[in-house]
Amino acid sequence: MRIGVLTGGGDCPGLNAVIRAVVRKGISTYGHEFVGFRDGWRGPLEGVTRELGIAQVRGILPRGGTILGSSRTNPFKIDGGVEKIKSNLADLGIDALVAIGGEDTLGVAAKLTDLGVNVVGVPKTIDNDLGATDYTFGFDTAVNIAMEAIDRLHTTAESHHRTLVVEVMGRHAGWIALHAGLAGGANVILLPERQFDVDQVAGYVEKRFQTQYSPIVVVAEGAQPLDGQMVLHNQELDAFGHVRLGGIGQWLAEQLEEKTGKEARTVVLGHIQRGGTPTAFDRVLATRFGLHAIDAVHEGDFGKMVALQGVDIIRVPLVEATRELKTVPVERYTEAEVFFGS
Amino acid sequence: MRIGVLTGGGDCPGLNAVIRAVVRKGISTYGHEFVGFRDGWRGPLEGVTRELGIAQVRGILPRGGTILGSSRTNPFKIDGGVEKIKSNLADLGIDALVAIGGEDTLGVAAKLTDLGVNVVGVPKTIDNDLGATDYTFGFDTAVNIAMEAIDRLHTTAESHHRTLVVEVMGRHAGWIALHAGLAGGANVILLPERQFDVDQVAGYVEKRFQTQYSPIVVVAEGAQPLDGQMVLHNQELDAFGHVRLGGIGQWLAEQLEEKTGKEARTVVLGHIQRGGTPTAFDRVLATRFGLHAIDAVHEGDFGKMVALQGVDIIRVPLVEATRELKTVPVERYTEAEVFFGS
Amino acid sequence: MRIGVLTGGGDCPGLNAVIRAVVRKGISTYGHEFVGFRDGWRGPLEGVTRELGIAQVRGILPRGGTILGSSRTNPFKIDGGVEKIKSNLADLGIDALVAIGGEDTLGVAAKLTDLGVNVVGVPKTIDNDLGATDYTFGFDTAVNIAMEAIDRLHTTAESHHRTLVVEVMGRHAGWIALHAGLAGGANVILLPERQFDVDQVAGYVEKRFQTQYSPIVVVAEGAQPLDGQMVLHNQELDAFGHVRLGGIGQWLAEQLEEKTGKEARTVVLGHIQRGGTPTAFDRVLATRFGLHAIDAVHEGDFGKMVALQGVDIIRVPLVEATRELKTVPVERYTEAEVFFGS
Amino acid sequence: MRIGVLTGGGDCPGLNAVIRAVVRKGISTYGHEFVGFRDGWRGPLEGVTRELGIAQVRGILPRGGTILGSSRTNPFKIDGGVEKIKSNLADLGIDALVAIGGEDTLGVAAKLTDLGVNVVGVPKTIDNDLGATDYTFGFDTAVNIAMEAIDRLHTTAESHHRTLVVEVMGRHAGWIALHAGLAGGANVILLPERQFDVDQVAGYVEKRFQTQYSPIVVVAEGAQPLDGQMVLHNQELDAFGHVRLGGIGQWLAEQLEEKTGKEARTVVLGHIQRGGTPTAFDRVLATRFGLHAIDAVHEGDFGKMVALQGVDIIRVPLVEATRELKTVPVERYTEAEVFFGS
Question: Does A101 map to a domain?
Fold first, then answer.
């Protein structure tokens, strides 16, 4: 068989580990041939490929990013996109695709399956918000990076009797904030899943200062205050009603400084959460995903996505995988609230 | 309620996170009081305690080890041990115990339960070999430390065209070797679960040298060669038939050097695998174990152990928890063999 | 002797290592007694102290921040400040002070020396911009944190064919940017010492994209474009002419995106550069500074600051120490320019 | 000019950073051409080369080891070795060599200079024991790795009330032990420069146990007890009088366990100290060494070695560089003794 591989969407530590496992097992166990498509769906759409054999995957296991490049190209939003993909795959003699990506990339994969393209999906989202798998790779790395930053911030916060607000990734799901906050001993954790009351947060912060320690507030970039609380401060909104200065972390730090009378500072972790070498958890998970994906390809079990369930790698239909966003359930948040404000 | 807490067996990153979660939730949510017992079962046996309140658990989340100390004391191997424990618990007004430990510590807990002591167990084994839980805390930290060492060793091996043998923990179960080897891109992984053929290992090593990369061999301390292979080298055994020089890693490196004609060196990771700050995965797991253990205590659900199943914390009977050693199943080893020797 | 210790200004990894060394050697070698002053010069000004003995300095060597707290209080800017300090020191029976801090803290120390207070200074600036010492502690830690962030960002930049602008500390001196940029393999490094031409930077960025790698631009927070370049974009300035959105990094990324047509993103490292456990270099330097500072106190050699010269710790007059800012000399910048734009 | 580059002796983090800087500046500033010689002096001796241009040095800055390989080949110990080198250099059209290595490699370089070969040396020794430079690259990385291991071992030592003996590199000079021990808060540090009294060490260990903390003993692999102390235990020596079990660390742990009655364990850090990504200090130092070495080549200033003096890179005659081993001076050891035994 001749198999194409592509990576789509935001990059994530572990992508290269998947590619390596797919190629290594495909060649050594099954005798497959591989073609690397560049930059997600742009690769098959425009027929842009790169060589992908044993030599190309050597040494990439510990490397972040993706040797194939990535993009957010969606062939279904481009006139004739699907036809181009099908003809390019035919021209290149591709029998099947391994598509590694998140909701968007796998959504395309699911639709292409219906149109007769042989695809196996590998789930990728640093936010851990895909419903059909216990975990996605990249998430554990992001959480560890955020936790290490929080570890560092505790001492500087305490030396200056300041509040430190740490803004982490998570537009729609708060998994990184929840886990990094729990692991880092945050004083408050704020998620997109539940609007927060800025006065309650200020109360937690004040309670923490009474212990002679200083508070660390972990806030997901998508977290929002209660309706109305941000309107009260509309001088900080731009013409479109967006927060003007630096995002929710910055806004919150200013609020907390004003309400508690204690200095507050913000750190926005940003892209360092998605770069760099993966943790062991992510390397093992990504490797196992890759090994099982190529098994599925070999068996002709297309239209599926590999997924983690407990300690097992299973297969689920691609359509199921992208059906709903996995957000933080209320009981996980309640669990964490024990540590708030003290 | 007045609750005793103890940690037994080898220390493990995450023990302090459990203690902190138990105490924080016990006090803030349930109004419990706590007594810390020192050094595992020696604490209740000899009535040696230390204060354990909110102040004592501040700042310990990121710290390895256990603030309570540990030991391998087994009251059932001491005359009148159980009676002493029961009378000490009565004298100290202890209503229930949270026992954090591995097979031995939890085995004692299970037996004490039968004798009317109120115990809830929290599983701890750096080797990840307890059957009733998907993972134990400390394991992920150990695997990451071993992986980082392997990452470092790749470049020195290649610069000198040497084989590097890395001996990791695991007397009876090879989970650390399997995961660290997979994550570190090892050339061969050797586990206690399956005797290895030293000639086959030498073959893998030679095959790797043909790629112009150098081989890393990850060997669990409890791995053994095929029957007879070590006897051939009995000058290296002491009077009891034990390997004389430094363990299986050292023995294997000498064999590989002889068989392949290429220099080989050994690194024994030893105690650095169990020390130091826990990873995010272990801090979150340990914290959740602690929170759920104190819930079980509060509900009077004794004789149980908390356990991880998928993403959920569940409770299982203590006796079940210690029934059998969870070794690496053959399919997980086969999965990894794809990467051997190339 | 009875000796007061204080830490002033922004916190820095290594402060606790200094405190520990001062106290350990002072007590065990010389039999001194110690008093900890809280929060920099606020401590002696308001007579706020904390116990400072062997027990208080145990375990603090690897901890960032300062157990004494810090502030920017300047007694010379407060009516009667100096008199209050002198009378508090007399009331507390303090014979001498060890003042650990940067330009401001040591400037106060120098003036107090002239007024008859016995002070020995220990230099501290994360920016490494004190003229009288080869290095200050905290700098090496900050550079390593920034370098690790840059290491992580390379792969994410390349996966998305983006420019990544990393803003690091350094308002007046670009040492952190220079060293982190050199160590991290930055494509361009921009310092406060030299205004940059945004078109030349865009040229470097474009040249880098031709190599199929992606550019990392390291910019010190105090770096500025050539006169006039920012005025052209005055919609991004606030009423005071300050950059409105997020600082120079954000401004630069927007410029580069516009000029090169390639996406650009910014990461502002902020407070994580000054928090957390110190590197070995900083722990050794801080420890040696502490040991030599207490020697100076013991010898009655006041009005001096300890400093690093080559591998030796020497003493220099406090006034000299704070005379001028040590900026990056032009030959060090030229040295680094070899790597720009390719 | 056409310039050969080689790396000899044990590998060291930073070698690749030197190679990259030499090649980048040589090509972009001076228009030189480069030839990579493989495996130290074996390369020019046997005429084994590899391509060395801009493409080959991309991405190697953060990588440990050396892309050129290394060996301990000494052409002066091989019949006709020097003649072969000279004729190979002539055949390959090599005008000058950059030799990166330690005492042996640079010793060869010095002798070849006398024989008319154009060589510039770059000092490399992980042990930091070359007299003519304040620091060598690789040392800072090794010290940080050892310190992180010690940090980890503190908590496990304390949990089990054990002594932990950490054996670090250093056969003839104790710099790694001194700096890692100081940075890691060791209880005792033992160097090759001074024989230790095992009873005094046991005394320090006992004193430490009285503090309720546990002792960490850092011992350089070349440290030795007082004459006679090891003979008393000759059952532990092999036929050649060498320590039979695992080196000085293992011997010392057994002695301490016997003398103090407290369990003791050993960790031998071994090769992980020399592998892996360099610290910022080492990357900057190695890069600057490389930049200045190619300047020297370009200026025809042969027979010199680059060296660090304070913050400046200087040039010293190669013969001077290798004249004497830089051991730890007594005052640096005395400085550290303040922390022993408490």
Answer: yes
